[in-house]
Amino acid sequence: MPAVTSETTANERSEQTERILRAAAALLQEHGPAGISTRAVATAAGVQTPTLYRLFGDKDGLLDALASYGFDSYLAEKRALEPSANAIDDVRRGWDIHVEFGLRNPAFYALMYGNLRPGRRPAAALENGEILRRMLERAREQGRLRVPVEAAAQAIEATTTGAVLLLLAQPESKRDPTPLAALCDTVIASIVTDGDPPGDARTTVAGRALALLAALGDGHGEPDDDPVVGAGFSTAEAAVLREWLGTLTR
Description:
Layout: H1 6-31, H2 38-45, H3 49-56, H4 59-70, H5 72-79, H6 87-104, H7 106-114, H8 123-141, H9 149-168, H10 179-191, H11 201-216, H12 227-230, H13 235-249
Helix pairs in contact: 1-2, 2-3, 3-4, 4-7, 5-8, 6-7, 6-8, 6-9, 6-10, 8-9, 9-10, 11-13
């Protein structure tokens, strides 16, 4: 009898994992997130339930792996995006890819963003958020943001996710993505600066304070990388400056 090597064991685990995820994906497509149970997945994959727990830890671990499995092609496309000269154009391209994927893969999208588990986000969702924030950081460096990167990211994530989930809740024949183009324009306009924002003096001051906060960053990195500290302020003074600017934005 041939010896069981660690490589053989790793290959078996990989094959079992793939088989379980394929079975879970088929169940998801047929029944939606509510139809996924550890027993049903194990039966469909032809493995014992303890095997599933050994590989994924628990049901949440299985759902996390399944979301990443379904979003693999989506993330591959997002990772492959070459930065253009205009970071805001890149954000728009990312928006379009996100919406198109959600409408083509409603079951996986609902699993990823509609199956809320407090305190846990699928690894694929975290990576998608990181890609968006890198795009927005480039926009900040180009002087295009009027709000901090995190505020811009939250606005885009909340809007795209809510809009796609709303479309997916409608009958397939009525899912018209056309209004999402105008929605994208509205959200982008709210976070991008092409000059002074309109409005009275107070609104203008608030907008300028937000733009300056966006340009300075949140100061959470190393002190040597903080442009405020680099300008001669102490770390404490930099924190106070950001606090004052935050007050002006309200």
